[in-house]
Amino acid sequence: MAENSVDNREEAEIPELRMEPEGLTLFSGDLSLRGDFTRMIPRLRKGSLEREFLVKAARIRNQAPTVAVDATAGLGEDSLLLAAAGWTVYLCEFDPVIAAMLEDAIRRAAAHPELKEAAGRMFLLKGDSREILPALSFRPDLVLLDPMFPGRQKSGLVRKKAQLLQKLEKPCEDEKGLLQAALAADPVKIVIKRPLKGPFLAGRKPDYSITGKTIRYDCLVNLRKE
Ligand SMILES: C[S@@+](CC[C@H](N)C(=O)[O-])C[C@H]1O[C@@H](n2cnc3c(N)ncnc32)[C@H](O)[C@@H]1O
Prior knowledge:
The chain is an alpha/beta fold. The chain is about 25% helix and about 20% strand. The strands form two sheets. Strands 6-5-4-7-8-10-9 form a seven-stranded mixed β-sheet, sandwiched between helices. S-adenosylmethionine binds near residues 72, 95, 128, 130 and 148.
């Protein structure tokens, strides 16, 4: 990945991570990708944020937002929505390149007047959430799961930026392990983001779902027994 680490390669094939003035950026051929929370700002404003399906799905009855784990953080956009809604969010990401871009995006957000409050509630945990979740020293009230869904990779409509991200993300091979790890963290609620018509994660039927135009949030509730 470093500029000086590879010499006999197809330039267009192997992505390269570079620190640019705008932030840590991944380049591949004519595509580039950078974690950028500034484009999310309009969605974070009062009036918009409460209408976000994820924010609605995350709500726990009779409770203000507390601590959440985003077990599949990616570039952190869903985590940012939760943090802006008041959740303290621990973000797990196991891909080292995505995790590096996410870390850099959080760092830049922490210095941005409109993002710094939410960014101050976002904490990155680099690694596999199947190992991290069962070993947490605290009990998150909420776990968010959004593993890559195989169908998503075939869409011809994906943005150029998303095309590069999809080169890095592999479809989830262990849905059962991910769900088991989320349950092992003993949360009150698990929210699972799925394509509108996608099957349930690991075949687990949710208690209810919140549906948008293209996305469905499957919610497992009242999970904590004491
Ligand atoms: C579809 S993306 C999530 C997008 C994210 N919700 C957002 O708002 O940007 C899935 C991400 O989860 C990561 N991931 C998948 N399984 C994981 C695991 N077991 N532990 C940590 N990260 C995982 C992938 O590397 C990928 O970046």
